[in-house]
Amino acid sequence: MRSWGRSLQIAFTFIGTVVGAGFATGREVMQFFTRFGHWGALMILTSTLLFVWLGAKMMLLAANLGAKSYEDLNKHLFGEKMGVWVSQLMLIVLLGVNAVMLAGAGSIFSEHLNLSYQTGLLVTMLACFLLLRKGMNAILSINTIVVPIMLIFTAVLVVHSLNGPGADRWLTLRTDLSPWAAWMSPFLYAAFNLSMSQAVLVPVGASVKDPVVLKRGAWLGGIGIGVMLMAGHLTLSTRMPDVRQFDIPMGGIAREVGPWIHYIFVFLIFMEIFTTLVADIYGLTLQLQERFRVSQAWLTLLVLLFCFVAGQFGFGPLLSTLYPVFGMLSLGWMMLMGKDRKLPPRPPSVPS
Question: What are the contacts of 130-136 at 24+ separation with CB within 8 A?
């Protein structure tokens, strides 16, 4: 039972790391899947398989390498010199992603809580700074609480949408976008999210070590991500194309169900953004500590201040511009992960 409990913790952390600002709000699902119409479901299945396969491989590699941070994994994949350069690039990308997360939190405050965008940024920054002082155990614990509740409320939205008009639109929705763009999209999405998940999954793999627990966690987490992607796609398809006007489209749909469901779901969206932001900044500060002999608290503060400045561009423009570019940059990393065969000797598994 302890072994299964640990696997569920890993699975929820995997889901919580991917289900961030773009995913939870619906913007990411729209960008990578729903706008491609009836192809969306097959594209989601492709992404799910990639999450399961490469998520497990990443954590097992980290366990075998005893990796302290994602740079150790990149050095293994790309070689010593190139691995450092790739990690430098990923550091910049992670900073951009964290800025998107913080901007997403600001959009929730302004679009759904009638508070200012800047208030949302500042409140989220303060909460993030305080939680990060607790370390990895806090990240695992908060995802174990938030992700199951998010799964339940996502199911409520799906049932509501499928009982209304347009329930079969995910099968009939047409698109003018090219088939090439459609079939590149799941690979871009998986590559981007898996490369960003390194910041959290590499330390998780290195700390847990038990291959059975890690594989089970990757399977549960990858399938969970696929289920949530599909739920979001089904829900958004029923409201296309009008739902594209919202920065937080899932929040707009939740408003139709009722005020209580709306506010609870908006709070959960915020918590998903928050958990991903906390996890990414944790991994980022671990990486920065290897380069600069500065305390983690100061590094956390500097990263949050950078995200605050970048967040002034707004959530929608940041996500739609940065995420596809980051996906392209991550494709090479994903290809090397997929074909890597240089597994070092595995250490003895730790009793769970």
Answer: 131/278, 132/278, 132/281, 132/282, 132/285, 132/296, 132/300, 133/297, 135/282, 136/203, 136/204, 136/207, 136/282
Q: Which of 318, 185, 166 is nearest to 242 (CA)?
A: 166
Instruction: Please list, in sequence order, all residues whose beta carbon lies within 8 angstroms of the beta carbon of residue 317, skipping any fewer than 6 positions away.
Output: none
- pLDDT per position as a tens digit, 178-222: 777 778 888 988 888 888 788 788 888 888 888 899 999 999 999
Give backbone dihedrals phi and psi of 295, rounded to 5 degrees, phi first.
-65, 150
Give dist(CA 30, CA 73) in Å, integer.
31
Q: Which residues contact 9 (CB under 8 A, 6 or more apart)?
A: 140, 143, 144, 217
**The two structure tokens encoding residue 343:** 């597994």
Q: What is the pLDDT of residues 276-325, one digit of tens each?
A: 788 778 878 877 877 777 787 888 888 889 888 887 877 667 666 666 77
Q: Are 13 and 279 in contact (CB under 8 A)?
A: yes
Can you list the positions of beta strands (E) in 222-280? Answer: none
Domain regions of the chain by residue span: 2-339
Residues 254, 249: Cα–Cα separation, whole Å: 9
Compute the C-alpha angle 302/72/344, nearest 5°.
160
Q: Which fold has domain 2-339?
A: Amino acid/polyamine transporter I (1.20.1740)
**Token couple for 243:** 């739902």
Rounded CA-CA distance 192/217 in Å is: 20
How far is residue 166 CA from its own chain's centroid? 29
**C-alpha triplet 201, 320, 119: angle, nearest 5°:** 80
In tens, the pLDDT along 151-185 reads 787 777 777 777 766 667 677 777 777 777 778 88
